[in-house]
Model the fold of this input.
Amino acid sequence: MPTTTPTVPSIDLPAALASVSPALDELARGHWPSYRVHDDWRTELDRALPEAGAGADETLRVLAETVAPHGAPFLAPGFSGWIVGAPTAVPIAAGLVTAVGGQQRYLGFSGNVLEEVALRWVADLCGLPSGLPGVLSSGGSVANLLALAAARQRAYERLGQDPSREGLHALPPGRVYASEELHHCFLKAAGALGLGRSAVRLLPTDGRQRLDVGALHRALAADVAAGEVPVAVVGIAGTTNTGAIDPLDGIADAATEYDVWYHIDGAYGLFGVLDPDVAPRFAGLSRADSWVVDMHKWLAVPTGTGATYVRDSAYLGRALTQEPSDYIEGAFANAGVPGGSPWDQIGTPYQEWSLELSAAARGIAVWATLHEVGRDGVRQRVVGHNTLAQHLAERIRHEPALELLHEPELSVCCFRVRGNDDRDADARTDRVLRALHSDGVHVPSGTRVGGRFAIRACFVNPRQTTADADALVDAVVSVALSE
Done:
């Protein structure tokens, strides 16, 4: 058989970073790269697996000249679609440190320490009860699933059953209660946990996209009377769609009356409690049993970092334990004992509170971001972005061609282009949105508010200014009037 000389991977990290850093710097500054070299970039990337490697130099060239310039420009200030984080230089650098020195969040090294510090700092920042146990995961979808797993554990343990160990067969059906504005990751979580997607009761809102507490009381009463098991009530601290904040205190009253686990989904909006003008709407926050917040949204760390906090970690542990194993518990002579070799200390047993065993030390980037800007820096960011949404709403009120679809509570603002009727307005709004996407300078997303199609702008990017909000309105009006 013919032989080939194996390609030896490069170990020259400074040279590799120097090759790609100009392209990455453009993206990190929120610029569209000006050095696009060709239009057929997909062909260069989408090829058959090579038999012989191209080597470090050629691979780095493709990364710098093709991959980076054609990456998604989520960091550009004109991007306001969905809720995608936009990390700045320090958290990006921290992500690199994590890739090299924080590949596991365990053992007695800096990554394990900063995992715990980051969780404590974020809880403090968001005004959560002190001393809460928590665990980092890939983001809100998984973080909410973990909390729901703990809630399921408690609900069925009260019936004398261990649902995680024994399963749900022959047990009465469980129910989860939330508003119709609930993020659909909860439906996925309910399915994965054996409750079933149909177990999630999506209840009506009060006309401002907030849960109708009266409807919650009626649903709980009806299900308890029918012999069903209330597993969790979910309050949303900032909906994905419009940024609405549920009446958290009123929901807490209902959860207390029926002795149901109360979970607060603050994946997007929990940092909103830092805005003094908005903080009163978070009354009841401390009454929950679990909380979720994503750091890769408003805190702007690299994507893949969300936190689950629980008041009682025992439920989380019994719901998600992987059972003892020789290769973990048996590998640490001084587990939990400070001092000695860092290899003999597993640190906090996050593997017992999560779906993951292997996981990077996500806390490094979270710690670095908060160490750089502090509480005041995050507060200024949140207040600034909420102000941008309010400014955008004010601009829309004064534009005859546009219609505001809700009053912003946080940093989301939804509006539409006016038409002859609702159907015509929907169609016009959709055409304007697609035109904006085609141009690529301003990229909001689309959604529906009260059944009406909307352009949705969400401000979480640290690079965004009032000028960007004004430019978005100007662009929408220009396109709408040119039809």
